[in-house]
Structure formats: structure tokens, C-alpha cells
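Need residues for this backbone.
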């Protein structure tokens, strides 16, 4: 059975347990590779390429997963507008979730969290940025 979110005709020939959407529901999103996660968002591939193969090529073309997500305009020749929109919307959702966590209080509770926040906030800026984060012993 093909899950609703997986219309890719190439993937229809894959064993069901290897399809990204099925893997996501059975084993969780963290079990998917970068290209499988992107494929879930792309939903479709090209004529003779699965969405996973297209995603793998897009990540290689962009140089990294984060470069692909933040610079979807550079990939407009190989991605459909609705695919670019889904990638951009996903990144914005992640930013908003992070912003919501910060608004709720002591979200900067460890160096790892601070690093992740700054990476999400500053990554992809076309210019260099210097940031200082000053916290007391309680990270407030």
C-alpha cells in the first residue's frame, strides 16, 4: 500500500518498508537519512528518478543539507516551485518553534542549545556576524 503522501511512481516499485514515508511512520523521523527526509518534503521525483534520488542530487548540488534548505532559489532549475515552498516552510517552522521555546523562559540552558540557536538564526547570512551571548550562572 502506498501512503497518501508518496505519489512517486518510481518509489511504487520499492519494497514498502524502504519507502521514506513508511519508514517515518514505522521507525520515526530520526531513522531517515537526509535525502529521505528531503524526499518526504519533495513528494515526487522526476521521470526516471525517485524523490530520494532527486533529494540526494539536490543535497550534493547545494553542498550540504543546510545549504539546500536555506538556498532553495539556487536550485530552482531542478526543484518545482511547490517543492521549494515546502522546504522554505519547513525551515520557517523550525525557526518559529525555536523562537517559541526561547519565549517560554530558560531555553538557553546549555552550550549546545546556544550553538544550535545561533546556527539556525545566523546560518546563510550573506555577511559575517559577530555575536556575544552573556548569561549568568543560571543561563538567564
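Answer:
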Amino acid at each position: 500500500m502506498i501512503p497518501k503522501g508518496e505519489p512517486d511512481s518510481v518509489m511504487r516499485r520499492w519494497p514498502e518498508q524502504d519507502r521514506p514515508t513508511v519508514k517515518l511512520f514505522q521507525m520515526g523521523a530520526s531513522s531517515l537519512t537526509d535525502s529521505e527526509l528531503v524526499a518526504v518534503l519533495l513528494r515526487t521525483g522526476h521521470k526516471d528518478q525517485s524523490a530520494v534520488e532527486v533529494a540526494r542530487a539536490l543535497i550534493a548540488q547545494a553542498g550540504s543539507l543546510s545549504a539546500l534548505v536555506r538556498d532553495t532559489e539556487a536550485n530552482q532549475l531542478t526543484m518545482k516551485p511547490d517543492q521549494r515552498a515546502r522546504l522554505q516552510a519547513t525551515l520557517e517552522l523550525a525557526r518559529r518553534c525555536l523562537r517559541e521555546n526561547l519565549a517560554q523562559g530558560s531555553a538557553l540552558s546549555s552550550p549546545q542549545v546556544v550553538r544550535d540557536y545561533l546556527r539556525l538564526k545566523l546560518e546563510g547570512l550573506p555577511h559575517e556576524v559577530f555575536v556575544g551571548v552573556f548569561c549568568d550562572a543560571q543561563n538567564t
